[in-house]
């Protein structure tokens, strides 16, 4: 009954989805590509036997890339069906395709769209990355006898409460999963409470990522040429850039009136600030924000051989986080200064970039705790405290060097999830 009501609501919302996609395509043309796929209509001929991986957005696609590399080693003849929900995910996923692979949009979760998807592709197995639970899609796969696993699975306490409030809808969906491979024991316990079969804890795939060495070399060379320390606001979410810029404004005003204490050798205005927004559609808005706050700006998209001089550098490129972490002396973790759960701090650690985290890290709760315990990161109460901590580290180079050195050791100690998950996929296929 409840799934029928849910299905009706989504069916009625289908025209609104089309309109939303048209609007988003004005800023991000990727949303205007192959729209009929969202409703289960495809240009490819019907087929079968796919290993289907669903990675909704950019972060999930990067995690899927790590798993996919392990799967290709274990099953070199596999045929990949890759689905996404966002334009950034789809763009990132294009680099993962080989001859014979197929990439389409995730079907809108109406019975008709998901049934057309399942009939058209007839996957051997479905692998949903991290959090993607869709009631009709899972029901259609279960009815067709297609095993579906949740890989690199996580579930925050907030999401568990939401699932429990909608248990009549969510419980059958979680229960339809054939396997659950959780990042942490805490995630496993919450997933079990949500209605899954007992999960296996295989670790976080993102520990298995290797930073781009060429980007690291370039970033470090640019850092040495900057002439002053570089602090990065990494994968910033809306509101966080303004937090930082507003604080720097007040700091600059105070600094003009009151000399800095003699013990503080490096102040906030002695730092080269670098901001990398999480979402590319916000690059222009953040550039305008920086200039509206009275700071000079230089954008990565305009750099040739090295960054130009400016108060603030803007990292307006995709796929270059290793370059930005190499360029930075230390980083502030985006998504953790608003109640958004934080972004991926594992990549920063692997790059040897010490990290200052805000109070909200539930998306990477265990990784954040482990990084803090290893000395690769520290946690503060808010943006002013983060800037103060950054300056404290910059004024204690030996302490900062120790935190930076702890990062790669911490990241390397938790590798292995990719191989374990690939073996679990093979076991599920053989079951």
UniProtKB/TrEMBL annotation:
Q: Where is the 3-deoxy-D-manno-octulosonic-acid transferase N-terminal domain?
A: 35-209
- Matches recorded under Pfam families: Glycos_transf_N (PF04413)
GO terms, molecular function: Kdo transferase activity
Which catalytic reaction applies to this protein? lipid IVA (E. coli) + CMP-3-deoxy-beta-D-manno-octulosonate = alpha-Kdo-(2->6)-lipid IVA (E. coli) + CMP + H(+)
Entry keyword set: Cell membrane, Glycosyltransferase, Lipopolysaccharide biosynthesis, Membrane, Transferase
InterPro entries given in the database record: Glycos_transf_N, Glycos_transf_N_sf, Kdotransferase
What EC number(s) does this enzyme carry? 2.4.99.12
Kindly tell me the pathway this chain contributes to: Bacterial outer membrane biogenesis; LPS core biosynthesis
User: Where is this chain's protein located in or outside the cell?
Assistant: Cell membrane
Give the main EC class: transferase
Q: Which family does it belong to?
A: Belongs to the glycosyltransferase group 1 family.
**What protein is this chain from?**
3-deoxy-D-manno-octulosonic acid transferase
